[in-house]
């Protein structure tokens, strides 16, 4: 056996690898054009203003970027946070750090903050969950602890269900609001409870907010972690928010986001990232400034998603227990046919209709006697309006005789 970090052996196959394994040997129906609703990869057009800013600043490739990024980018992010969440501007020098997308930062964060010298450290996350949380815990030498989130309890991650001995060993809690896959937005009362637990047990909070800008009512924006803390009259102690341009601005390939919050944590995380070599491409920084400074393209992006959700949801209601999410671009739906598992449903759609969706059980772990993703499917409405409508109609016609 190779002398490598043994924690690598704890990593499980990613959901999309498991999906490929599930479909192995199955030929999709060639009578239908393929429609992929399995992965949360934005498909709307990247705005020209971002493309232009990227191409106009390629001269920056001749320079080594700094870990902290250009002050102009950090100021643009600080101003965006202030406008978006109606809070005082954060210190651009000390409270904000550009990152290469929220995914790598969410993983790297655990490596920087987990104190593995303490016995049996714990990282808590919701279940179903974004698998990066689990992998980050394992590679940091911590044990993941999952809290099942179900429609029956409004997808709440209830820390009151966690044993006292686990809470005492908890060093980091990942939360995702708007949630993946549920689309649930945490309320102010839920943030208050989470903050109270953090104060009592001393753990850090990593607030994954990569879906914060996909919502359906311009007058009802999802509450953010920093905003909740401000509303409650708190400092940002032990709180770091993670955000990204990928979904907001349709630039998943640009890998651009930020972390913001507790200045003491940002200082140490910056030190970690300096050694890790996570500096953002200078041209990407310029394009990111253009993106954070413009809201018109984001409003149009939301309009496109809202149209799809409004028209697709009622069509699917005869086959799935489906309703509009609070935010994000997923439909997280229970299968009405109690005799068909989520994996069987996904295979049927792939084989018979050439539609790819993600079985909910692949997004969750068996915990506390159940897999909370079982008999659910996640559909990412990222394809065009016509493709999403076509997929919904195919599903209805196939199952409703």
Explain this structure.
The chain has 401 residues and is an alpha/beta fold. It folds into two domains: 6-45 and 297-399, Aspartate Aminotransferase, domain 1; 62-294, 3-Layer(aba) Sandwich (Aspartate Aminotransferase, domain 2). It is 39% helix and 14% strand. The chain has 14 helices and 13 strands. It has helices at residues 15-23, 48-56, 71-85, 102-113, 132-139, 164-169, 188-201, 225-231, 246-249, 263-276, 282-292, 296-316, 342-353, 385-399, and strands at residues 35-36, 96-99, 122-127, 143-148, 170-176, 204-208, 239-244, 257-261, 320-321, 330-335, 355-356, 358-359, 376-380. The strands form three sheets. It has a seven-stranded mixed β-sheet, sandwiched between helices. α2 packs antiparallel against α11 (282-292) and α7 crosses α8. The longest helix has 21 residues, at 296-316. The chain starts with 14 loop residues before the first helix and ends with a helix.
């Amino acid at each position: 056996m190779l002398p490598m970090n043994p924690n690598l052996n704890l990593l499980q196959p990613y959901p999309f690898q498991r999906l490929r394994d599930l479909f192995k040997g199955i030929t999709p129906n060639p009578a239908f054009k393929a429609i992929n609703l399995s992965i949360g990869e934005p498909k709307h057009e990247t705005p020209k203003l971002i493309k232009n800013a990227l191409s106009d600043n390629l001269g920056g490739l001749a320079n080594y970027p700094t870990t902290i990024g250009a002050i102009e980018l950090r100021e643009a992010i600080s101003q965006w946070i202030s406008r978006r969440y109606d809070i005082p501007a954060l210190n651009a020098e000390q409270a904000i750090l550009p990152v290469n997308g929220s995914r790598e930062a969410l993983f790297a964060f655990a490596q920087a903050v987990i104190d593995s010298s303490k016995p049996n450290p714990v990282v808590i996350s919701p279940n179903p969950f974004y698998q990066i949380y689990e992998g980050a815990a394992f590679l940091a030498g911590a044990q993941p602890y999952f809290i099942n989130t179900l429609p029956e309890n409004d997808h709440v991650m209830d820390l009151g269900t966690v044993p006292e001995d686990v809470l005492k060993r908890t060093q980091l809690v990942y939360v995702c609001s708007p949630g993946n896959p549920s689309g649930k937005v945490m309320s102010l009362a839920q943030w208050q409870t989470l903050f109270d637990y953090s104060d009592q047990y001393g753990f850090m909070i990593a607030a994954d907010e990569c879906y914060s800008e996909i919502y359906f009512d311009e007058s009802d924006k999802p509450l953010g972690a920093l905003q909740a803390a401000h509303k409650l009259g708190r400092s940002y102690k032990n709180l770091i928010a993670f955000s990204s341009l990928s979904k907001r601005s349709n630039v998943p390939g640009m890998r651009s986001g930020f972390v913001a919050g507790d200045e003491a944590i940002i200082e140490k995380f910056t030190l970690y990232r300096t050694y890790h070599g996570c500096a953002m491409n200078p041209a990407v920084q310029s394009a990111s400034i253009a993106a954070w400074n413009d809201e018109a393209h984001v409003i149009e992006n939301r309009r496109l998603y809202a149209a799809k959700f409004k028209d697709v949801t009622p069509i699917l209601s005869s086959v799935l227990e489906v309703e509009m999410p609070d935010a994000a671009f997923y439909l997280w739906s229970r299968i009405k046919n109690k005799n068909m598992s989520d994996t069987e449903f996904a295979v049927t759609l792939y084989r018979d209709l050439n539609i790819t969706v993600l079985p909910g059980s692949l997004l969750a772990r068996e915990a506390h006697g159940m897999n909370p993703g079982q008999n659910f499917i996640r559909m990412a409405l990222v394809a065009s309006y016509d493709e999403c409508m076509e997929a919904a109609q195919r599903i209805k016609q196939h199952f409703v005789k």
